[in-house]
Specification:
With about 220 residues, the chain is α/β, with parallel strands linked by helices. It has helices at about 15-25, 30-40, 45-55, 60-70, 90-100, 115-125, 165-180, 180-190, 200-215; strands at about 1-5, 30, 80-85, 110-115, 125-130, 135-140, 160, 195. The structure holds zinc ion.
């Protein structure tokens, strides 16, 4: 199956992508991982991407698309893949369609994770990370540490990352609404979109997504 996963920051996209890819036995292709892999392996595309990033500029769509193409041509992606973070605007979606067409492939589904704006803000702005290890993550409401401000795992100090401040989250949501959300209409016109309520327990959201994929087949 070839799937695109779309959703605002804070909707649990990364978590769902990992779980769905595992269940469906297809690789989870995220733009974050693509960038990291290309940069660490110093591929031509990685070097190019890094030159833009070092200059504080956005990496052009062509570079992202070329990285995605390379990844989708790997043997493990023969039976399908789940794209996460790509496409993130309509021109990338059009480029992806062209790319798939040249390979005689089609997308099977676009999963649109939906969560109320106030909830995603609460989810992200409530996150607290340990200064000793960024893998030690808590949430002031959902998974509070035993002692406020102190990591349960190692006793380190918990803090809120700048990226997680309410102001930054609202800005990221704004970018999502203006740039990424239009791809949902683009894919709706192709009859590919399944809207998934991304609220409630993580397991429940995964179950809804898998059911929607079954219905589509
Ligand atoms: Zn810790």
């Amino acid at each position: 199956m070839r799937i695109v996963l779309v959703g605002p920051p804070g909707a649990g996209k990364g978590t769902q992508a990992t779980r769905l890819a595992e269940t469906l036995h297809i690789p989870h292709i995220s733009t974050g991982d693509l960038f990291r892999a290309n940069i660490s392996q110093q591929t031509e595309l990685g070097k190019l991407a890094k030159s833009y990033m070092d200059a504080g500029n956005l990496v052009p769509d062509e570079v992202t698309i070329a990285m995605a193409k390379d990844r989708m041509e790997q043997p493990d992606a023969e039976g399908g893949f789940l794209l996460d973070g790509f496409p993130r605007n309509v021109s990338q979606a059009e480029a992806l369609d062209e790319l798939l067409e040249t390979e005689d492939m089609k997308l099977d589904a676009v999963l649109d994770l939906e969560a109320p704006e106030d909830e995603v803000v609460k989810r992200i702005a409530g996150r607290r990370v340990c200064r000793n290890d960024s893998a030690h993550v808590f949430h002031v409401t959902y998974t509070p540490p035993k002692q406020e401000g102190v990591c349960d795992v190692c006793g380190g100090e918990l803090y809120q990352r700048d990226d997680d401040s309410e102001e930054t989250v609202r800005k990221r949501l704004e970018v999502y609404h203006t740039q990424t959300e239009p791809i949902i209409d683009y894919y709706k016109s192709q009859g590919l979109v399944a809207t998934i309520a991304a609220t409630g327990p993580v397991d429940e959201v995964t179950r809804r997504a898998l059911e929607a994929l079954k219905r589509d087949q």
